[in-house]
Task: inverse folding
């Protein structure tokens, strides 16, 4: 059976899907989930509160949420990717790339010229992935790098 993939904007009526996804995340993903150390409850809470002011996106595989990301308006002509998570068992299989490419398409369609994100300095896998997708290092603080991609 061929896997069926699709993207869908999060809405409160899809709460159960996202909650199940967050419960499936392993400890490694939870530790790298967010620069500010948001736990899985915090991510769901931010999705629920901000779904009208930002663009939370779910990646589905055969009706199961396997990845989530969230875009926000950042500056004039810029988007901020505040969250990108793939379930542990499917990491390294280019699902993060699918979400990134979908995010780029949405940002371009909205007339954005840049996309920003922050990544922990010790998250080598994420840094490599973002570099491969054209993100450049813009600035850094003690724990994180701010990266930018010109669309």
Result:
């Amino acid at each position: 059976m061929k896997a069926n993939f699709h993207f869908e904007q999060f809405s409160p009526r899809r709460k159960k899907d996202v909650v199940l996804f967050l419960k499936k995340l392993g400890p490694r993903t939870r530790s790298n989930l967010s620069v500010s150390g948001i736990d899985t409850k915090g991510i769901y809470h931010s999705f629920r509160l901000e779904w009208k002011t930002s663009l939370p996106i779910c990646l589905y595989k055969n009706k199961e949420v396997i990845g989530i990301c969230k875009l926000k308006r950042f500056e004039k002509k810029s988007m901020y990717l505040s969250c990108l998570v793939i379930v542990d068992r499917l990491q390294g299989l280019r699902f993060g790339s699918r979400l990134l490419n979908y995010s780029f398409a949405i940002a371009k369609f909205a007339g954005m010229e840049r996309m920003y994100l922050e990544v922990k300095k010790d998250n080598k896998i994420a840094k490599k992935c973002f570099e491969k997708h054209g993100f450049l290092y813009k600035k850094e603080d003690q724990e994180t790098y701010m990266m930018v991609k010109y669309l």
Q: What stands out?
A: The chain has one domain: 5-150.
